[in-house]
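Look over this entry.
=====
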Amino acid sequence: MVPQKQRLLVDIAAKVMADERQNIGISYTGFCLTSLPHKRLPDEQAWQKYGYRVTLLVEPGRLKTAKGDMRLYGVPYGARARIKHRRYAPAAHRSL
């Protein structure tokens, strides 16, 4: 039914889909090829990285202050941001 050249790919896909405990770790290609900045960027500047047929764009976000004003927060940066990125990437992948 499946050509011999594609049989290995079908077997891998079947194992991934059959793993109900989610022991197999998968990261989205965009997350694997990119990272967050090492140094702080200006608050209004976006972070954009390019990979093969994929682009990751991280834009600054806004949060409401205690006074009710909206404050612009820049793109996450540094070691803590990269650790959080790695921690939450699998959850983002599961929600797709």
